[in-house]
Amino acid sequence: MTRTTMIFVLCAALLLSVTSVMASVEKDKELQALASVTDAAPYIGPVAPSYPMDAQWDLLATYDMAVTTSVLCLGVEFADGHWYVTDGGVSSGVATDNYINILNPDGSLVNRVLQTTTTGWGYRDLAYDGSYLYGSGDLAVHAFDYAGNEVPAMLINGPVNPCRALAYDPVMDHFWTASFSTPIYEFDRAGGVAWTGASGLTAVYGMAWDDAAPDGPWLWVYDQTGTPAGTTVFQFDPINHVMTGVSYNFPLPPGYTSNIAGGLCFTDEAWPGFFVLGALGQASPQDVIAVYEMYPAEVPVWDMNVDLTYIGGSPVPAGGGNLMFGVFVEHFETVPINFEAWLDVEYQGGAPTTVVERSFSNYQPGWTINRPDMWFPVPGGWAGGSYDFIARVGWNPSTIFDESGFPFTKDGA
Fold first, then answer.
1. CA–CA separation, 156 vs 154, rounded Å?
2. 45 shares its domain with 138
3. 215 in the same domain as 122
4. Is the per-residue pLDDT at 42 higher than 70?
């Protein structure tokens, strides 16, 4: 079975009409286009992004990098309760004055540590693996500790010169990089390239690994293009190796006249209660760290109810057939909520496979979904045996608020 993403479009002007239209990525898994007259939800998804948020992309803070005294700041990371900012000293022609700046969370300077690299501007973007920070000014990716001391034993040979944009995937223990218009590279600590492919971008400078989004992970790619500033982040799917089509251009921070992308980081430690992107801007009148809200650090668990009612269709013939059911969804919160609703199929007690998923945004108190006459086309290619058909609400797949289901069987070939 393959995951199917369903797109529903509801005429927002009519809350009490049969207006739902949906489309399936897989031709053999189309659901009928039905909406009950009691379905009073004008915000039927998918909505991107669907995870809970206060106001994604809100500018939470800016920190003036005049404290570094450098003419050009390059990379940024947040680790061990501090900002780490790399700078190129006074000139790319002076290769011995590149610094690591260690700053307090409020942007005040703690210390400046001379980099050991002697290449041009020195380290560009930074990455953090939970123990060490990493930066590159050439083919090598250098590691250093919280005090800014290099750790030669952790040196990695990178795939591009320099490994300008840099991010770390803690699950695979892999790094990601690109430099301006080069391909994106995923590589391991031995320098082996696990994957590479074109990004379609021309001015990549920073990267950040986002493992907090319920529908992620994502790789955010920071590019020196866009209007009104050359500060656009693009969302890249590191599992399927494609750009998702989601992007955001950071506007000029108040008081700034120009800005282009530098390094990028993702953290839940820099701002209480939120996962944020920390974006280094090579800006005027002064380089800057801009902190942008992404999502709450703690995902809310809403009080919800879902009922899935079996109507007919089981056993499904060997050649496939329609499974008839009804679904009812309600929530008991006193404020609008965001959530996802999805249908999973579990074959003979195995892992769930999501076959339908919808996202809901600004779902008001008192709204319900009542669809008593739905059907799902079970493909003939599915194996014979016993299945469970389950409706779930929450954040797929990490958090389930409520679920309801029934068993069905399919005849074998």
1. 6
2. no
3. yes
4. no
